[in-house]
């Protein structure tokens, strides 16, 4: 096992101070090598978050495209199969598949040119199966790349 602390990339969709949604590539890097439950071997563990959460799996059909909208709550989105995209109000479009993750936190955007929040949809010829982990509460202040 490598003793080198891992880094895990993710995309953060957030609202800036002007009410515009943006996306930033971030990295989690604060991991501790320990056993999840002894006698299991140690593994790299990130920080735990104790906010109340709701977990669900969604299936976006082939060709599905959502209208411009904000995330209903701050939420992790983890593609399990297929591919999907997120386009933020600043024009950034990110496509993701299995092994890539996104944190959607674009609440409080201001409508501009018919856009508010983000647009998302499936990519390619198969449905996008996503695991969604929604936080029960939003933070009063959004800080890009807050998960370390």
From TrEMBL:
The residue ranges flagged as biased composition, category Basic and acidic residues, are 107-116
Q: Which CDD domains match?
A: cupin_BLL0285-like (cd07009)
Entry superkingdom: Bacteria
Q: Where is this region: Disordered?
A: 96-123
Cited SUPFAM superfamilies: RmlC-like cupins
Q: In its UniProt entry, what is this protein called? A: Cupin domain-containing protein
The taxonomy runs: Bacteria, Pseudomonadati, Pseudomonadota, Alphaproteobacteria, Hyphomicrobiales
């Amino acid at each position: 096992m490598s003793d080198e602390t891992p880094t895990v990339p993710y995309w953060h969709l957030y609202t800036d101070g002007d009410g515009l949604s943006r996306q930033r590539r971030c990295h989690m890097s604060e991991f501790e090598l320990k056993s999840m439950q002894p006698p299991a071997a140690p593994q790299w563990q990130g920080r735990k978050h104790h906010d109340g959460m709701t977990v669900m799996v969604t299936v976006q059909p082939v060709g599905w495209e959502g209208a411009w909208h904000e995330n209903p709550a701050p939420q992790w989105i983890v593609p399990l199969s297929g591919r999907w995209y997120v386009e933020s109000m600043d024009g950034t479009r990110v496509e993701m598949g299995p092994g890539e993750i996104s944190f959607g936190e674009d609440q409080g955007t201001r409508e501009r040119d018919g856009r508010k929040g983000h647009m998302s949809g499936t990519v390619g010829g198969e449905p996008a199966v996503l695991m969604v982990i929604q936080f029960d509460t939003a933070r009063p202040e959004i800080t890009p790349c807050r998960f370390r």
